């Protein structure tokens, strides 16, 4: 169950330990995802049981989004951007389309051409991550990670 069911994010106190736990989990998810992309081309990867539906919904709500381009964080986190993303994410809060922890924070690369790094990574909610990474994977934009890892493995053998 999501923490937002227990804490009003608008009035939540700033708990340092809670923030550290969120950060640890986000970094773990980031590491696991990268490791998966090194072992399997993104174009062959399914992130959820609803990938097709999420991708179609994403394309209909964000028709101008280009998964190959770097994300404009200011636009994404503007008042209008936040509202549009909130509406998108809420479709996965409950019912048959429910995605566990749909609004949990996670890390996203600004560009599919980059590895995770301090300046190349932004903090987003899970549904933003899923929508963008599913679009990138379907477009083959993350396959370079697998190809690069395979070349490195070949050099070592």
CATH homologous superfamily placement of the domain at 49-156: yst0336 like domain
Low-pLDDT ranges = 1-7
Over the alpha carbons, how many angstroms does the gyration radius reach?
A: 16 Å
C-alpha geometry: globular
Report the average pLDDT across residues. Answer: 89
In CATH's first tier, which class of the domain at 49-156 applies?
Mainly Alpha
Tell me which oligomeric state these chains represent: single chain
Please tally the β strands and state the result.
Answer: 2
The CATH architecture classification of the domain at 49-156 is Orthogonal Bundle
User: Which structural class best describes the helix and strand composition?
Assistant: mainly alpha
* Helix residue percentage: 40-55%
Topology as H/E string?
Answer: HHHHEEHH
Note the gap between the termini. Answer: 45 Å
Query: How many alpha or pi helices?
Result: 6
């Amino acid at each position: 169950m999501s923490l937002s069911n227990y804490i009003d994010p608008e009035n939540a106190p700033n708990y340092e330990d809670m923030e550290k736990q969120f950060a640890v989990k986000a970094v773990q998810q980031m590491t696991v995802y990268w490791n998966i992309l090194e072992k399997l081309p993104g174009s062959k990867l399914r992130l959820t049981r609803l990938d097709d539906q999420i991708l179609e919904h994403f394309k209909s709500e964000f028709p101008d989004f280009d998964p190959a381009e770097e994300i404009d964080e200011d636009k994404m986190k503007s008042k209008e951007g936040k509202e549009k993303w909130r509406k998108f994410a809420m479709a996965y809060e409950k019912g048959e389309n429910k995605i566990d922890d749909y609004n949990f924070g996670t890390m996203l690369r600004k560009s599919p051409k980059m590895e995770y790094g301090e300046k190349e990574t932004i903090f987003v909610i899970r549904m933003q991550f899923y929508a963008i990474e599913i679009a990138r994977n379907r477009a083959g934009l993350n396959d370079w990670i697998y190809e690069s890892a395979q070349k490195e493995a070949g050099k070592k053998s």
